[in-house]
Amino acid sequence: MSSSSPAPDAVAAHLDRFLARMRDESMEYGPDAASFLSVAAATLDGGKRLRARFCHAGWRAVARFHDRDATESDALWDICTALEIFQSAALVHDDLIDNSDTRRGRPAAHRALEASHRAAGWSGDAEAFGRASAILLGDLLVAWSDDLLESALEGQPQALTVRSEYARMRRDVTTGQFLDIAEESAWSVNDGGLHAERALRVASLKSARYSIEQPLVLGGAFGGADADQMAALRRFGHPVGMAFQLRDDVLGVFGDASVTGKPAGDDLREGKRTVLIALTRQTLDASARNLLDEMLGDTELTPQQVSFLQATITDSGALEQVEAMIADYAREADRALSGARLDNAAVGELRELARAATVRSS
């Protein structure tokens, strides 16, 4: 990610302020709730601050096109921070759904809550406690995100537009998450020729829109974008988001665990029906395809079996095809910026962010 963006430092400061307020307001809840809130706060530590960076860049592209001296407000940074809190909510639920043990090299939230149950010497099933608590933890983070967004929008002229885009983002990612888990079961009754199309729909809803496109549009809307500027941001943001998710799919199979913070081949053990898998299946004969289907989703895959599946995907040409798709999406996004009525310096930043989002190892 670009090191020139002020977003990470600004988000860190606004997160600290918001979390301090949440701790103060929740003191009456007692020590157990305080521990719960501490786990929630821990989920907000680290990460690329991708959504905040794109939201800030979207604001800058519009606001400084109209006013070269436009400066960032606390309200803008609170919107960026709200996006990062929502991202943490999505990750908490995602890790729970996928039975992932780690996140950013640390225990996933449900595992951290499970460990706190054991450490306290409580009775009952610690694992069940961790899972149930993580559902509530994700819900709390969504509420925090909404709280911060609403306080940021108070009295702002663009509040209605920003609020509408934020609501759309929440609907899209929730539906996309459902379609993702549905595809892990539905693939077996659908025409194999449709698997890639269905996987691309999931990628669009679950990731591309809420990771890149909608943060950009939210920033642009807050900056006072007109219809043409909003359209330009969408034309740029969606293909970048698609390339970003396809890169995630590649890393989910081939990523270095020491860099990604997730076990190598994690998507294979989780049974993710990604574009990478769909394209692989199209080239295999029936026997090889059945073996792939049998192994995919086996949580006990050994490193040797992961290596076998990685080789199968590579030899099928699917990895090369996905890399070509990533490059095509990146070019489509770059073309969308040509002639757009956006601040020139911000356009350069958008191009830099697009490269960082699609050419990465974590």
Your description of this structure?
- By secondary structure, this protein is mostly helical.
- It has 16 helices and two strands.
- It has a two-stranded antiparallel ribbon.
- Strand 1 and strand 2 form a beta hairpin.
- Helix 15 packs antiparallel against helix 16 (344-358).
Q: Which tags fit this structure?
A:
362 residues, 16 helices
Describe the structure in brief.
By secondary structure, this protein is mainly α. It has helices at 7-25, 31-42, 50-66, 74-98, 109-119, 126-153, 159-186, 195-222, 227-254, 257-260, 266-270, 275-283, 286-295, 303-316, 318-337, 344-358; strands at residues 102-103, 106-107. A two-stranded antiparallel sheet has the order 1-2.
Largest sheet: 2 strands, antiparallel
Low-pLDDT regions: none
Helix percent reads: over 70%
What is the gyration radius calculated from CA atoms?
21 Å
Order of helices and strands: HHHHEEHHHHHHHHHHHH
Strand fraction equals: under 5%
> What is the number of beta strands?
2
Distance between the termini: 10 Å
The secondary-structure class comes to mainly alpha
What overall geometry do the principal axes of the alpha carbons give? globular
| Total of DSSP H or I helical runs spanning 4+ residues | 16
The average pLDDT score comes to: 94
Q: Order of strands across the biggest sheet? A: 1-2
